Amino acid sequence: MKIMKIAFYVILVSMVMTGCQFSRSVKKDLASGLTSTGNGLTCEEVYLTVNNERTTRNSFSYGEMAYLVFNDVRGFKQENSKSFPLMQILVTSLKGDTLLFADNLYSEYTDGMNYSPLQLTADLTFAAPIKSGGEYLLKVIIRDRKGSGIYTSRLKFSVKGNDKINAEPLNVSYNEIYVYSEGKDKVINDGKISFDDNIYIMVEGLKGFKEENGMVFPGLSIMGTDSSGNKTLNNEDLFSEYSTAGIAVTDFTTRVSAHFKLTGSEFNNPLHVELVVWDKKSSAKLKVVTDLTVE
């Protein structure tokens, strides 16, 4: 009789442990290193997309946007057949410094969600305060606002600059250089632009210019030629009006940019663009060169 009680106890403990493990889940993408764990909440699949395509990358270009997709999330405590998810996004440096924290995504769904299957997404643009040349940790947490369930995904990732842009700094430093499309509202990393779109060459964090009473005195030129050598852009000094008054250091350091728009329907690709920012009070200078394809 004593043996039967012990056996029954062992079976009972085994059933309880099995029930606890059922509410826990672990997923890992070996290619990207994306790891997901659930306690009380489960998810059929977790994956990344860039430009509406799935990817297993963990290295991204500055300005890219990625979506972390959670398909068929289950386990929420139901009220009137609705789920009440909360999502948090945290980006830190490898040292643990917090760069970005979003505390309550989906807060607008105060009345809950009744989608089935339930798909949740988190998006991240790899731009300031994220910098190119760095490595970071992304953590996305899904919580049950009506219960104790939690689901967490982690990804270690790196960000690189645009290898289609060449920079030649002289006695200056900078944080980022990139090409931006106003029409597409995004950073252009593939070098492809369109007619009738405002295209910006952006320089952020430019330092090294001589300061006088909180002002700097830069020049800014932008030149462009097609493959036949025809000049399509020819602005020798976009900052000529500031030669005497100067520009506030804080404004200049935040961002320097020049933009252009190509009109028409045909073009002799590629467009070779050269942007130069120089100091009218010293020898400091930055030259930026890139080739763009007009589509």
Q: How would you sum up this structure, described in words?
A:
The chain has 295 residues and is mainly β. Helices cover 9% and strands 48% of the residues. The protein has two helices and 23 strands. It has helices at 2-22, 249-254, and strands at 24-28, 35-39, 42-50, 53-55, 59-61, 65-74, 85-93, 98-105, 120-125, 135-144, 150-160, 165-170, 176-181, 186-188, 192-193, 199-204, 215-216, 218-225, 231-235, 247-248, 256-260, 271-279, 285-294. Strands 1, 2, 5, 7, 8, 10 and 11 form a seven-stranded mixed beta sheet that branches. The protein starts with a helix and ends with a strand. The model is unreliable at 1-22 (pLDDT under 50).
Topology readout:
Elements: H1 2-22, E1 24-28, E2 35-39, E3 42-50, E4 53-55, E5 59-61, E6 65-74, E7 85-93, E8 98-105, E9 120-125, E10 135-144, E11 150-160, E12 165-170, E13 176-181, E14 186-188, E15 192-193, E16 199-204, E17 215-216, E18 218-225, E19 231-235, E20 247-248, H2 249-254, E21 256-260, E22 271-279, E23 285-294
Parallel strand pairs: 5-11, 15-23
Antiparallel strand pairs: 1-2, 2-11, 3-4, 3-6, 6-9, 7-8, 7-10, 10-11, 12-23, 13-14, 13-16, 16-21, 17-20, 18-19, 18-22, 22-23
